[in-house]
Amino acid sequence: MIGELRLYDIVNTPGVGADLSHINTNAKVTAFIGDAQLGDALSGCDLVIIPAGVPRKPGMTRDDLFNINAKIVKTLIEGVAAHCPKAWIGIISNPVNSTVPIAAEVLKQKGVYDPLKLFGVTTLDVVRAQTFIAEILGVNPKEVTVPVIGGHAGTTILPLLSQSKPPLVLEEDKAKALMERIQNAGTEVVNAKAGAGSATLSMAYAASEFADACLRALNGDTGVILCTYVASNLTDLPFFASQVRLGKGGVEEFLPIGEMNKLEQENFEEMRSQLAGNIQKGADFVAGC
Question: What would the pLDDT profile of 111-159 be if each residue is shown by its tens digit?
Fold first, then answer.
């Protein structure tokens, strides 16, 4: 589904581009490097995926990355606004809870904001939930569906285990432990890498799943449903991750959150103020620039 894959970074892009260009697909691979080439990299793009930024290290939260990654995302989104204002944008750069609002504010300033085409990529939360649930049920993870709502940091990640298919029946303490493992899975990887970085391979897989879903929708598939962090009216929060149905114009339908059990409802109420603060922090960053 890819006509041309363009890579952009401030260093090392030509080598990565050469490596990818040897893969046996029809996609043309082009590499761009440095500030002067950002416009050429973005010009006319249909889908822009932004994983840029610094990784977490042990003891760091996603929010600790804010000051560095916020500036990177702002610069790249300014480039999108100038060179491919109608593109779909998927933001992976942490803290996603704040970087998506940053992108929204920049696009508003430039007069090209389309809330239906701006996404925070929370696919890895769903991938992890599917994996861990499948381990418990003894089934193929591909057979598991489970909504993960809220945001993309710690307790703002809310897997709705009660809505899992196949059904997952757990005692409350075990359900709570599983929920916490999903919420803290990124830290599990950070600690296991012992200072050498954060999740990269699982994140790359999740990013490819997200990009594939977007490309299918752009190509006319009307049955694409995924969880993603977007401008939403499902709650009183301006941005919220939930299941949506995609179409050629971006988000076409917000699926209902559905009924939550007592544990999930408690976590939902607890995370709202934190997520609201994360969102406001992003908006304040742009306002102060």
Answer: 999 999 999 999 999 999 999 999 999 999 999 999 999 999 999 999 9
- Is 152 labeled as catalytic in the residue annotation? yes
Pick the CATH number of 4-121 from 3.40.50.720, 3.30.700.20, 2.170.120.20, 3.60.20.10: 3.40.50.720
CB atoms within 10 A of CB 194: 9
- What is the topology classification, in CATH, of domain 123-276? L-2-Hydroxyisocaproate Dehydrogenase; Chain A, domain 2 (3.90.110)
In the annotated binding site for substrate, the residues are: 56, 62, 94, 128
Of 6, 74, 117, 152, which is the active-site residue?
Answer: 152
Phi, psi of 259 (to 5 degrees): -75, 135
Give the residue ranges of the annotated binding site for NAD(+): 9, 69, 92-94, 203
What is the model's pLDDT at position 51? Answer: 96
Locate 235 and state its tokens: 């709650």
The whole-number pLDDT of residue 64 equals 83
Q: How many residues does the chain have?
A: 289
